[in-house]
Amino acid sequence: MARQARYDRPTLLNKAISLFWDRGYHGSSMKQIEQALDLRPGSIYAAFGSKDGLFAEALATYADQGRQELMGYLESSESIVDGLQTYLRAMAGTASASADKPARACMIIKTLLESSRTHPELAGQAEQILADVRKALAEALEQAKMAGELADHTDCERLARLIQAQIVGLRSMAERGLSPEELTELASDVSAILDAYRARH
C-alpha cells in the first residue's frame, strides 16, 4: 500500500505565504522554510520542485485568495459600488500584518521590488497579478456603470488604476504602524472616492 502524505497542499501553501510575506523571498532560508512547513528538504522539493516553485505557487494562491475575497464582497452587496466600498473599508482590518492574515498587496509589491533584478520570473508573476487585479476592478466598475450606478462619463480603466493605487498605499501605510483607528479612517476615506463617481438620479 502506498504511503499516504501527512500534509495537505493548501495548508503548506498558507504556511509558506505567511513566511514569505514576513521575510520575503531572499530573507527566507531553506531552513526556515523547512521549519515553517514542518517538512524535510526532500519532501519540499518533491512537492514543489524548488524554492522558486514553492514561492511562485504561494504567490498565486495568495492572489487567488484576494480575488475570492473581492468577489465575495461584490456578490453579497446590493450594488457593485456598495460592495467595492465595503471591501475597501474592510481593509482597515486586514491591512494590519499578522501571521494568519498578511496584507496581500504588500506581498505582491514586496515581491515586485525584491525580485525585479534577481528573479525576473517572480517579478513578472507579480506584475501579472497586479494587472489582473486592475482588470477585475475595471470590469466591476464597467458593470456598475452599465447598471446606472456610475456616471456615464466615468473612465473605468482610469478609476481602476486610482483605486488600485489607493489599495497599495493603504497596505503600505499599515506597515508604518498606524493605529487601528487611523487605518479605519484611511480606509473610509479611500472608499469615499467612489462617491464622486456615482450617478446622480
UniProtKB/TrEMBL annotation:
Higher taxonomy: Bacteria, Pseudomonadati, Pseudomonadota, Gammaproteobacteria, Pseudomonadales
The entry's keywords: DNA-binding, Transcription, Transcription regulation
Organism field: Marinobacter suaedae
Transmembrane parts of this sequence: none
Keyword presence, Transcription: yes
DNA-binding region: 29-48
Pfam family, one: TetR_C_13
Name this protein carries in UniProt: TetR family transcriptional regulator
Record's signal peptide: none
UniProt cross-references to InterPro entries, sorted A to Z: Homeodomain-like_sf, HTH_TetR, Tet_transcr_reg_TetR-rel_C_sf, TetR_C
HTH tetR-type domain location: 6-66
